[in-house]
Each structure stands twice: as structure tokens, then as C-alpha cells.
Amino acid sequence: MYLSRFTSSFNRGAGYVYELDEIEPKLYLSGADEASSVETLKKYKITHILTINDYPLTPSVKEELGYINKKFICLPDMVTSDLLSYFDECYEFIREGVSRGAVLVHCQMGVSRSATIVIAYLMKKYRIKYREALDKVRARRCVYPNPGFVSQLEKYSEMGYNTMNRFAPRSRSSSYYR
């Protein structure tokens, strides 16, 4: 099901309405094609878009849907990319967006970067570990965060779901110094 929907979405014309994967009420995950479709955004009543990609959404989305709140994080999908630094601010953007409307989180394909942000959001919201949050997302969409992002998600749990904790001084007895 996931693969057929994924492979058949290429080269759709303007006006095509895509399906979005609802991870939990008012929180959706997708790729860039879906996020660029004004008709799709209207259908799902999207009010907030979080883009994690090499480039932002086209200005036409904001022009046609002036009420859309957008956040853009320019980040390549590489194991060395630091997405952890953005977890808390993305959590706040999603939390606020869900309270005011509906949020779409996307990257290029909706598989690694955006999935990582949604997983981090669920981890913090429910105080759950990486694997449980991953299973919740995979129940709704086929996702595969890259190994570097998986390590960052596991670290986020160790940090108590607060990225400011990574700057806290550590004692010599902690595993950080071993």
C-alpha cells in the first residue's frame, strides 16, 4: 500500500489532491509533492507547515493560502546532519499548530528528516522511548530515519527530551567522559 502510493505520486499535475498520513489527530506527515499541493492543504485544513529540506516550499503556497504558518529548516538528509538542535523548537511549533489547526511536517520524501521530527515530537509529548514512537509513526506511514537521526533520537531520550540538557556540565563519572 505505502509503496504503490509512493511510486504513483510522481509527476501529478497541478490540481491533484494527494493523501496525507495522519499520525495522530491534526498531525500529518508527507513528502514535498503533497506539501506543495494547495488543493491537498485545503482538503486537510492545514494551517501550519514544517519543512525540513534542502529548499523551502514554493512561495505559491503562502500566496494562495495566506493563513498558512510556515517554518523552514534547511538541512540535508545526511548521517552527519544535526537535527537534534531543532527538536525542541519543532516540538513547540507542532504543539502550537495542533492547538490552532492542523500541522503538516514534511521533507523531500517524508521518510527520514520529517519522520525524525514527528518521532521526536511524540517522544517528548508522551515521554516515550525512540522505538515506541517509531512504531506509532510506522503504524501510519512507512518511515526510515537515517542512522545519524536514530542516534540523535536515542540521545534525546537520554537528555530527558530537552535539548538544553546537552549543554549541562557533566560529572567525571558520567559515560560522557569514559
Topology, element by element:
Blueprint: H1 2-7, E1 21-24, E2 27-30, H2 32-35, H3 38-43, E3 48-53, H4 59-64, E4 69-74, H5 87-100, E5 103-106, H6 113-126, H7 130-138, H8 147-158
Parallel strand pairs: 2-5, 3-4, 3-5
Antiparallel strand pairs: 1-2
Main location: cytoplasm
Domain Tyrosine specific protein phosphatases: 81-141
Protein name: Protein-tyrosine-phosphatase
Task: Briefly say what this structure is.
This protein has 178 residues and is α/β, with parallel strands linked by helices. It has 8 helices and 5 strands; from the N terminus they run αββααβαβαβααα.
Report what the structure shows.
InterPro entries: Dual-sp_phosphatase_cat-dom (IPR000340), Prot-tyrosine_phosphatase-like (IPR029021), Tyr_Pase_AS (IPR016130), Tyr_Pase_dom (IPR000387), TYR_PHOSPHATASE_DUAL_dom (IPR020422). Belongs to the protein-tyrosine phosphatase family. Non-receptor class dual specificity subfamily. The chain is an alpha/beta fold and 178 residues long. The protein has a single domain, classed as Protein-Tyrosine Phosphatase, Chain A (Alpha-Beta Complex), CATH 3.90.190.10. Helix content is 40%, strand content 13%. Strands 1-2-5-3-4 form a 5-stranded mixed β-sheet. Helix 5 crosses helix 6, helix 6 crosses helix 7 and helix 6 runs parallel beside helix 8. The longest helix is centred in the middle third of the chain and has 14 residues. It is globular. The termini are far apart.
